Write a sequence for this structure.
């Protein structure tokens, strides 16, 4: 299986892109931390009408090993944004299939996200630590959403994710999951437009190279965070 490890010189370049403080916190988080995320689920049969965007959004399945759309993002991004793009580069490098890309009229990527079946979820989980639950045959995951800098604020995330859920439905998925930090309000709002609702709280513990995933029920505090995040804006 293709390695996702970074070579020494390459790693130093990414440290410069992240910035020393962000890089140090990332290393410490991998050594000893707990990451809390919301698991959101969309019942495909009950999903709302596909959201529209200010531009046409068509999700096209793409070979992850040949996709270089994140290269320009890495040249311009810094800090946490750099880290988000870099993580998706590593998923591409691992050869995880299911990458879908929406491009503008000039062929430049606007939005990307993976649609994972049970087999690709297992391959991903074996290569990269994360919260992803084991899937039944009629379940799927949409993960690693990324809106490219030039196309933010156009509604492409909700439209792209909605189109990806539609593709999953055509392939037999009855329920689709995704994972979002509870403080990521823009992503929570986009997911809500597609028909996602909280299904669990996921805590991923990192302990000196080992990690453990724990699912718990949605509590009152989490429900309040969700309601506040997706409430209509005045």
């Amino acid at each position: 299986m293709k390695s996702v490890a970074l070579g020494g010189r390459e790693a130093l370049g990414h440290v410069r892109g992240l910035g020393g403080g962000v890089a140090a916190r990332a290393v410490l988080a991998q050594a000893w931390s707990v990451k809390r995320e919301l698991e959101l689920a969309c019942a495909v049969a009950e999903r709302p009408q596909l959201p529209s965007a200010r531009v046409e959004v068509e999700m096209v399945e793409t070979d992850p090993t040949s996709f270089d759309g994140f290269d320009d993002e890495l040249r311009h991004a810094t800090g946490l944004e750099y880290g988000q793009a870099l993580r998706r580069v590593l998923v591409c490098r691992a050869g995880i299939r299911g990458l879908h890309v929406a491009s503008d009229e000039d062929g430049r990527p606007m939005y990307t996200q993976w649609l994972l079946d049970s087999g690709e979820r297992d391959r991903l989980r074996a290569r990269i630590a994360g919260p992803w639950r084991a899937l039944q045959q009629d379940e799927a995951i949409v993960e690693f959403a990324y809106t490219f800098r030039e196309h933010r604020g156009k509604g492409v995330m909700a439209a792209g994710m909605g189109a990806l859920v539609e593709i999953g439905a055509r392939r037999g998925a009855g329920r689709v999951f995704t994972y979002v930090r509870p403080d990521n309000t823009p992503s929570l709002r986009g997911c809500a437009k597609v028909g996602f609702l909280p299904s669990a709280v996921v805590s991923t513990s990192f302990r000196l190279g080992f990690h453990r995933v724990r699912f718990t029920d949605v509590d009152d505090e989490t429900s309040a965070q969700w309601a506040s995040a997706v409430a209509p804006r005045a």
In short: The first helix runs from residue 8 to 18. The chain has a mean pLDDT of 92. Strands lie at 32-43, 60-61, 99-103, 109-116, 139-147, 175-180, 197-207, 210-216.
